[in-house]
Amino acid sequence: MTNHKHLKYFIKVWLIPAIIGILIAVFLRSNYFSFVRITGVSMEPNLVNNQITLLKKKARVSRGTVIVFKAARSQSANTGLDSLALRVIGLPGDKISFLRGHLLVNGKQVNESFLTASEKAATSMSVDSGWSLNSLSLNSNWPKNQRNIKRVAKGTYFVLADNRLDPIDSRQYGLVKKTDVRGVLSVFPWAGKKIVKNVNHTSENFYR
């Protein structure tokens, strides 16, 4: 086989398929999914530091899903992170409260089987009487356009950390804008059956 034929064979059999494969991978990564490494302890015990996860950029955001979003400036200053992974609790129009040890969305108790008893209790932020979305919104860390609200605002989500002792979530910093959401996070099967259920499928059984 001549050098010319060798070159044509290489281009046809190896180079062109490789280029096509790279372009497809770049397209999928840019538009549909990417890999995300968890940083920090805010989602323990369900997601741990340095864990590799899958980010689905076109997936539907529901109550119970874990999202990755661009951190607010104050959150970023506090954590040193540009993006955070937290769990969606409230959708636009929802009323959120924590009363008598129970997390409520629109008056219905949330099924928090993905948390330990101590983590559930920590949701209170040491406020004995509990809190409502309205009382949280009076926090000076909340954006001014989210102050004194009674329901989750249009185009936003109320999010909580699974590690409720680490209040870098909506209790402290306000609602997450839909435009800042980068996708819905999933774990791989080898994370274990319990973790897969707690991260990938919580939205299927959100209420008690």
From TrEMBL:
Catalysed reactions, semicolon-separated: Cleavage of hydrophobic, N-terminal signal or leader sequences from secreted and periplasmic proteins
Statement: the UniProt record of this protein carries the keyword Transmembrane helix: yes
Domain Peptidase S26 per the UniProt entry, residue ranges: 14-187
GO MF annotation terms: serine-type endopeptidase activity; signal peptidase activity
Transmembrane feature ranges: 9-28
Localization, UniProt: Cell membrane; Membrane
Keywords: Hydrolase, Membrane, Protease, Transmembrane, Transmembrane helix
A cellular component annotation (GO) from this entry: plasma membrane
Family, as annotated: Belongs to the peptidase S26 family.
PANTHER family linked to this entry: CHLOROPLAST PROCESSING PEPTIDASE, SIGNAL PEPTIDASE I
Name of protein: Signal peptidase I
